[in-house]
């Protein structure tokens, strides 16, 4: 009979003799396990379509395949499919069981961001799902990623200057033990640029590129971009006009008929002030002052 044996194949990354391998582990059924397993390795070549890259028959409850940069490359989503049978009766085999897809490469968490022009910092984690290996460079081993941003604008607009700012232009991924889905990780903060313009919600993206990697596995690999949507917030306005009438950010109105230089507004979060200068424009008939200068510091 064709039956499901609940083999539950799972893919995990490992370093084997300094090279990145993927290990497919599966649970032998009890109480009387089959002797042989057929293991088929495949990669996602296009949406919904897999391409076979390796297969073997083994009595072991695991199977390895190397990430060699040719058959399996960074950026691939990999599967292993396991079928069990008894030695001498290969026609009596279990139903094939698939592992979950394992994405080998760089991941950004979260995979997309929606932020606002409010000055808040948002943490973006950059992690590698495979171990960092540097053959021949064990004393100083790391993968450096160059980060860049690009403004995508709106569909009706040409791309403009970046709408987001990063806390660092480079991050280093260092060797270490794999835990969960991460074998190396670094963080960077993302902040929306406050442009004081009512330009609607805009899209940006963050790209990463490995810098001069020593391992051939990392060459010609470009991680997926992160899409960032920047939500436009209303811009505050304050006014000083004519002789002069003042309207504050919160809409309070008053008049200032004095001659001199005055502080119009000051930021409480950064070093920024706006000063106005007023002179006598009423002569002897009335005590009236008018704006004659402004300075932003």
UniProtKB/TrEMBL annotation:
All residue ranges annotated as the VWFD domain in the record: 236-297
One GO cellular component, as annotated: extracellular region
InterPro entries: Dev_Signal_Modulators, Ig_VWDE, VWF_type-D
GO molecular function: signaling receptor binding
UniProt keywords, alphabetically: Disulfide bond, Signal
Record-given protein name: VWDE protein
Organism: Mystacornis crossleyi
Name of encoding gene: Vwde_4
